[in-house]
Amino acid sequence: MDLTGKVAIVTGSGRGLGLAYAKALASTGASVVVNDVDQAVVDAAVAEIPGSVGVAAAVGGTETAERLVAAAVENFGRLDVLVTNAGILRDRVLWKMSDEDFDAVIDVHLRGTFTCARAAAIRMREQGDGGRLILISSPAGQRGNFGQTNYAAAKAGIAAMARTWALELGRAGITVNAVVPVAATEMTKTIPAFAPVIEEAERTGQPFPAWLRRDEGLGTVEDVTGLITFLASDASKDVTGQAIGIGGDRLALWSHPAEKAVKYADGGWTAAAIAAGWDFVPETYGIPAPRS
């Protein structure tokens, strides 16, 4: 993949997955705008990525989104790729989640994706030669996850926005896809079933076991970057409106929500008729427990 001449913004790219995305795009020739809320973290990332520039700002509001696009245009002359990776966690079960916990996560993940994508789409449409919006979702948004009302709702919304924007931006040659990554990060270290394996791999320098890489689709942050680079490239020009999972040795295309089974009743359905006729096989939900 050769991204020479392309310009990319990666939000939340001071560390973790975002930093890996930014490094991968730069390594294939793209000019990159790095973003994090912490100036010191931004400076450190820019020092690692030759030719990059940084914007220290919290993602969420329109002002930050416009600053990021302006940084791309002022430093590199254009914008071709946006990766909306910035995010935070405020995990609580429903009855313990505060308004502040909910709003903070929705603001960064969902509103931040919206404002940044809107600013990027305006610029890409003005340029007139297409672009790539790569929105980072999560398995929690696809299946739900205990204690993550705010995060799961935001990530599900991001996948829905990807489908909507793919429709709206298709004529402009702008593709929009949701990426569903699974990787060993500070967040996954908090999962009891994964933590010992991740810690052992980091301590010994040994690769993750095959069951983790294949069955769970969990590997390093670098394992996720190939999909980001592909979606940023011209090779993905016909891929849009999709939710694509990646992690470890696994690459997966997620299905879209669709009617699984349908019944009809002349004149409509009463509550009693529904009770009498209910024989649908329910869908599973929740992220499956790891199998070691």
Précis, in short:
This protein is α/β, with parallel strands linked by helices. The protein has a single domain, classed as NAD(P)-binding Rossmann-like Domain (Rossmann fold), CATH 3.40.50.720. It is built from ten helices and eight strands.
CATH H-level name... which superfamily?
NAD(P)-binding Rossmann-like Domain
Instruction: Report the top-level CATH class.
Output: Alpha Beta
Biggest β-sheet, characterized? Answer: 8 strands, mixed
Low-pLDDT segments: none
Strand order of the largest sheet: 3-2-1-4-5-6-7-8
CATH T-level topology: Rossmann fold
Rounded to an integer, what's the Rg over CA atoms? 20 Å
How many β-strands, per DSSP?
Answer: 8
Gross CATH architecture: 3-Layer(aba) Sandwich
Approximately how much beta-strand content do the residues carry? 5-15%
Inertia-based shape = globular
Domains (count): 1
Describe the structure.
- With 292 residues, the chain is of the alpha/beta class.
- It has one domain: Rossmann fold, CATH 3.40.50.720.
- The protein has 10 helices and 8 strands.
- Strands 3-2-1-4-5-6-7-8 form an 8-stranded mixed β-sheet, with helices on both faces.
- α4 links the parallel β4 (81-84) and β5 (131-136).
- The chain starts with 6 loop residues before the first strand and ends in a 15-residue tail after the last helix.
- The model has no long low-confidence stretch (mean pLDDT 94).
